[in-house]
Description:
Layout: E1 2-4, H1 20-24, E2 29-31, E3 42-47, H2 54-70, E4 73-78, H3 85-93, E5 100-103, H4 107-110, H5 112-115, E6 128-132, E7 138-142, H6 153-162, E8 168-171, H7 177-188, E9 194-197, H8 201-209, E10 215-219, H9 220-228, E11 233-237
Parallel strand pairs: 3-4, 3-5, 8-9, 8-10
Antiparallel strand pairs: 1-6, 2-6, 7-10, 7-11
Amino acid sequence: MMLRRSILLRSQRRRLLAGAAAAVLGAPFLGRARAQPSRADVLRILCSGPPGSVPDTVARRVGDALGEREGRTVVVDNRAGAAGQIAVAALKAAPPDGNTLLLAQGAIATVYPSLYARLAWDPSTDLQPVSLAGEMTLGVAVGPAVPDSVTDVRQLLAWMRRNPGLTNAGSPGTGTLPHLLEVMLFRDAGIVWEHVAYPGGPPAVAALLGGQIAVLVLPEGLLRPHRATGRLRLLATSGAQRSA
């Protein structure tokens, strides 16, 4: 989701209007100020993921397009960690002049208020949406910690029931959409597991490949290159159609 500090015509409050369904689908948004912002030579895009993550890739593509269209220098500022909350805090602290944007998942605006008892920001007053930046398909992957005989989700759940001491799963942060998918999948199946949160997708992939975690839920785009080399196995995706 991409958001910017907004300037309201009659007050200094900022408002976010995000569709819950789009956020549940993992659709990022772009947020825009209502009033005419001041124009600076440099436009900053705060990114909720580390370099190499899906938010980082999207932020850089959006930045290239904006820079060319607006004739401005666009800088991507990675503020990974705390499932995007660090990036949101940086956005809130930025001057409300329209020159700072945030690219992050839609759950920040729609899911987090229900998930966390306390947030350092209020999505209904501190953020302003601009546009959909993209959609993602999530994948459920396993690495070398899971036997090669496990080739689908049903077999994975059976293996996890038989090996409770080995059942840990990673995500790019607590409260992120990959984490919520993990919770729905394992809790509905009666699995007891340990959740391991990472400050973004790339370090989580490294942990899966290294055998530190057994299962990982991430955007499919980060998993596909390692699937092609055989270093991980992609057991399922969240899309409406098969990915392969």
